């Protein structure tokens, strides 16, 4: 696999301190051998769980300027394009233009779309981004990685069980998406989350389910790391979605368990970790990213 098969453009948020957006996604991809160019949709001092937030929001013209510069230098041929948090409709429309243009440069480019809109029933982007994701961006995507809330928004369906989840995921396939991975949904078990993945290839549908432990702590940046890892592992195992997802979840468990342990130590007995104490221990988890110890196994779904 040459370096030309491992060249990624990542468009999402950036923080000076901490790990969300590109700060969370770029490092794992680089550790796993991928060249990553990145454009920031916003540049903030920290993520938004901190008390004081300062920074800048890029607009569509700035994205166009940066991408057109890359294109003008003849270096806009990417094997993969990854998008995450976008804060405005104009920027998202420019993302659509970038995706189309990058695919013109390489018809075989894989586009991984993390439709970052919200979680736990709450939007944290303008609500008018949702129909743009649903109607304009999803049909361009090869892989989408919604959480439960985002899958419900994009499909127009409530998810309360596996049957409903798979039905919602099929609506995303119907828009042209080849691989849909529901990164997590609540199964009703207090200490467990479930991943569901489905893939359409050569007219055949395959899928997998992975149940994994839910840690009792609020993390940030997990979805960004998840999508970056899925980009890599689906590239390494294009015909085995279950194996790819096992690698992703096992890596995530290694990172989160280390983060949880360190945060609890810093907070002290009975204490609640602060946002700074809860930052992902991404650098400390380099070995988990490079060589994930498979902690969870999936089961195949039949259709």
CATH level-1 class: Alpha Beta
Oligomeric grouping of the chains = single chain
Which architecture name does CATH use?
3-Layer(aba) Sandwich
- Work out the helix count: 9
DSSP summary, beta strand count: 12
The stretches of 5 or more residues where confidence is low (pLDDT under 50) are none
| Class per helix and strand makeup | alpha/beta
Determine the CATH superfamily. Answer: Ribokinase
Compute the average pLDDT: 94
Q: Span from first to last CA? A: 32 Å
CATH topology-level name: UDP-N-acetylmuramoyl-L-alanine:D-glutamate ligase
Helix content: 25-40%
Describe this structure in words.
The chain has 303 residues and is α/β, with parallel strands linked by helices. The protein has a single domain (3-301), classed as Ribokinase (UDP-N-acetylmuramoyl-L-alanine:D-glutamate ligase, 3-Layer(aba) Sandwich), CATH 3.40.1190. It has helices spanning 22-31, 60-72, 89-105, 130-137, 148-155, 162-173, 222-236, 241-267, 286-290, and strands spanning 7-15, 35-44, 55-57, 80-83, 110-113, 118-119, 122-123, 143-144, 179-186, 192-201, 204-213, 299-301. The strands form two sheets. The protein has a ten-stranded mixed sheet, with helices on both faces. Strands 6-7 form a two-stranded antiparallel sheet. Helix 2 (60-72) runs parallel beside helix 3 and helix 7 packs antiparallel against helix 8 (241-267).
């Amino acid at each position: 696999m040459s370096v030309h098969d491992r060249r990624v453009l990542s468009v999402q948020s950036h923080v000076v301190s901490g790990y969300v957006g590109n700060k969370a996604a770029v490092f794992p991809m680089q550790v796993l051998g991928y060249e990553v160019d990145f454009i920031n949709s916003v540049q903030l001092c920290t993520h938004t769980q901190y008390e004081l937030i300062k920074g800048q929001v890029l607009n569509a013209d700035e994205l166009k300027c940066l991408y057109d510069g890359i294109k003008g230098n003849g270096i806009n041929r990417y094997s993969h394009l990854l998008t995450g948090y976008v804060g405005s409709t104009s920027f998202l429309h420019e993302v659509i233009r970038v995706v189309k243009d990058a695919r013109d440069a390489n018809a075989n480019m894989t586009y991984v779309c993390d439709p970052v809109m919200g979680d736990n029933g709450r939007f944290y982007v303008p609500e008018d981004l949702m129909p743009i994701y649903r109607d304009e961006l999803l049909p361009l995507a090869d892989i989408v990685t919604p959480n439960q809330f985002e899958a419900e928004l994009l499909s127009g369906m409530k998810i309360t069980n596996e049957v409903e989840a798979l039905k919602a995921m099929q609506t995303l396939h119907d828009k042209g998406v080849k691989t849909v991975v529901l990164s997590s949904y609540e199964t009703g078990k207090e200490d467990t989350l479930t991943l569901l993945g489905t893939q359409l290839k050569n007219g055949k549908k395959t899928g997998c389910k992975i149940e994994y432990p839910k840690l009792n702590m609020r993390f940030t940046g997990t979805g960004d790391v998840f999508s970056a890892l899925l980009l890599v592992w689906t590239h390494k195992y294009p015909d085995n979605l279950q194996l790819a997802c096992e690698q992703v979840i096992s890596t995530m468990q290694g990172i989160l368990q280390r983060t949880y342990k360190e945060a609890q130590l810093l907070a002290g007995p009975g204490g609640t970790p602060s946002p700074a104490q809860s930052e992902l221990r991404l650098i400390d988890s380099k070995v988990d990213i490079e060589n994930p110890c498979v902690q969870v196994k999936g089961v195949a779904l039949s259709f």
